[in-house]
Every structure is written in C-alpha cells, then in structure tokens.
C-alpha cells in the first residue's frame, strides 16, 4: 500500500491502518450527478471507494461544462445521460472502483430501493422536494446521508446520522415558498463554490465510511467562496416534535402520480409518471418521423417538432423534458400530444 495508488492518502494519519480497506468495501449512493455530484463522484472514486451508484435523470448539455467537472464536449455531442457519461470517465480514472450508473428520476416510489444497502447517501440534487424524500428514506432505513446545496457563490452542507443527529426536517421544518429563494437560474452559480461544498461532502462521507464519526463537523456548514467566509452552525439535538425522525412519518415515500417539475437553470419542465410508464423509443421515433427532427440514441430520443419551437427529450422510463417552457400545463399538453400517455 505504501507505494501504491493510495500511498499519499494513507500517509494522512486518520486514513492509515485499515481505513483504505474499509473504503474499498464501502458502497455509496450518489443522487444527482450535476455540479455537486460530479465533484463528489470524482473525489470518492479517486479515494478508492469500492462501489459508487450514480443516480441521475438528466443528460449532458453545453451549459453544464462550466461547473460539472466530469463532462466534456464529446458528451454533449453524443447526448449522453449524465450517469452514463460520468461512469465512463470514472472507469478510466480508477478501474478498481465499481461505478453503477442508474438513469432514473428519484421519487417517493423508488428511492428506498435505490438507496437500500448503502453505507452513505450523498446529495447531489438541486431540489428540496427530492432532498425531502432522501431524508425520509435515509431516516426510515437508518442510512447516514450528506446534504449539500450551492447557489451563486454560497453553499451549505449538513451530515445526517439517523438516531443521532437532527434530520433535514428538524433543521428546515417548512419548505420555502416557491420563488422565495434564489436558484442557479436567477442567481447563477460559480464553479469554485461547487468545489468547496463538494469537498466538504466528500470528506464527510469518507469519515463515515472509515469509522471517523467523531471527526464529523456536527452542524450546518455555510460558506461564501467569493467573500472567503465559512461558518459551522451547531444544529443541536433532533427536534422532539420532528415528524420525520421522531414521529417516523414518511408521507413522501410510496407511489405518486405524474409530476411536472421545473429544472433548475433551464427553461424546461420534466414530466414523469410514478411508477414509470416505459416507452418504446424506437417505435416512438417511427411514429414521429416526418413530424419534425428526430434523434434516437441508445439512451434517449430527442424530438424537435416542426409545429412548435418546443422540443422534447424522452427517456426509456417514460420521462420527458419539455424544452423552452416553464408552464406545467404546456409541458403536460406537449407530452400528451407527442408521447401520448
């Protein structure tokens, strides 16, 4: 080990001894492979985490390249799903790590199956709704998870250990009103802020996986990379009346109906049915032929109708991203018109 791939890492005191073996035996589920997710995945794979499952619903676009460190222009040209592109890059970085890409939308009906058996869950999402169901699943199954969020030059992170620390619902008991908080679309986001928060998430995950729970930061870390400030706010004990970790109510888990949600930083809406209603992409491509421009890949179908400026990207699980609209009704109508169910 002293002269091997992880030699420098193992010379750091806390990661000496059997820590590398514990990392090699660990399984992490990363939900979201955008800005935070790619940086966390890069760090965990280079550190030798044995098994990494990457769950993401989206595909690589040019606007991602400014901050999503695993992607390049070839992934944009090939219209690759982010999980697939990330797994291919990570496999070239460290072939000793098993990287499993899962191209699905995480929702209350599938989240438990996706995270079951993980040693740690890491949040790479951009949605408080998704984080809420991650929190519920993690608490229900007793799996530690690491929350992270970034907007502009600011970010925050918190580590949740069910049964020991406050959960996300304890710290944020009420969801913010729609439009009340800045987003990456309204306030932008810079790469260094992403890297700073991802570094905290990665090292917290490594501490958990190697048995160094006493070294966890133990609070809500907030930072502003532009102002170069960082603060850890103690979160104390779990809230006695928390409906999630104290009363163990999990309303977000279970099957939910079709949802239409806005995608952060894009004039696009995702339309999804839960449970999924799979689509025969090849058959759909044939039906759409002659009605506009059709691009079919092994992972998705992109359709630009001649009748409208709004295009769609459709996935095998029946999800679709409707572009150039933020109107849920328009997105649902386009989905029904072109996909048909």
Q: How would you characterize the overall build of this protein?
A:
This protein is α/β, with parallel strands linked by helices. It has two domains: 7-234, Rossmann fold; 259-338, TATA-Binding Protein, CATH 3.30.310.10. The protein is built from twelve helices and 14 strands. The chain has helices at residues 7-10, 19-24, 35-47, 73-77, 82-93, 111-115, 128-141, 168-171, 184-187, 191-209, 281-288, 328-338; strands at 27-31, 51-55, 98-102, 120-123, 145-151, 154-160, 219-224, 229-234, 259-262, 268-272, 292-296, 301-305, 312-314, 320-323. The strands form two sheets. Strands 3-2-1-4-5-6-7-8 form an eight-stranded mixed sheet, with helices on both faces. Strands 9-10-14-13-12-11 form a six-stranded antiparallel sheet, covered by helices on one side. Helix 3 (35-47) crosses helix 10 (191-209). It is globular and about 65 Å long. The termini are far apart. The mean pLDDT is 92.
């Amino acid at each position: 080990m002293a002269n091997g791939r992880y030699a420098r890492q193992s010379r750091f005191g806390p990661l000496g001894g059997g820590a590398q073996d514990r990392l090699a035996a660990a399984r992490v589920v990363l939900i979201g492979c955008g800005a935070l997710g790619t940086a966390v995945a890069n760090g965990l794979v280079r550190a030798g985490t044995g098994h990494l499952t990457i769950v993401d619903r989206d595909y690589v676009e040019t606007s991602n390249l400014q901050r999503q460190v695993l992607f390049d222009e070839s992934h944009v040209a090939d219209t690759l799903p982010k999980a697939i592109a990330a797994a291919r890059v990570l496999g070239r970085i460290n072939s000793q790590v098993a990287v499993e890409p899962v191209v699905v939308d995480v929702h209350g009906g599938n989240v438990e199956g996706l995270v079951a058996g993980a040693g740690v869950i890491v949040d790479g999402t951009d949605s408080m709704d998704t984080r809420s169901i991650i929190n519920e699943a993690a608490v229900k199954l007793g799996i530690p998870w690491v929350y992270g969020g970034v907007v502009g030059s600011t970010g925050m992170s918190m580590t949740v250990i069910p049964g020991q620390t406050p959960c996300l619902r304890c710290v944020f008991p009420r969801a913010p009103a729609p439009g009340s908080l800045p987003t990456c679309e309204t306030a932008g986001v810079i790469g260094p802020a992403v890297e700073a928060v991802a570094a905290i998430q990665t090292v917290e995950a490594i501490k958990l996986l190697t048995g160094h729970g006493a070294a966890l930061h133990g609070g809500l870390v907030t930072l502003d990379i532009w102002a170069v400030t960082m603060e850890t706010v103690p979160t104390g004990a779990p809230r006695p009346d928390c409906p999630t970790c104290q009363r163990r109510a999990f309303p977000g888990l279970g099957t939910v109906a079709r949802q239409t949600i806005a995608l952060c930083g894009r004039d696009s809406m995702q339309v999804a049915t839960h449970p999924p209603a799979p689509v025969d992409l090849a058959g759909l491509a044939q039906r759409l032929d002659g009605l506009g421009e059709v691009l079919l890949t092994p992972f998705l179908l992109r359709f630009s109708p001649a009748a409208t400026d709004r295009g769609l990207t459709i996935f095998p699980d029946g999800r679709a991203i409707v572009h150039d609209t933020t109107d849920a009704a328009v997105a649902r109508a386009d989905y029904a018109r072109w996909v048909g169910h």
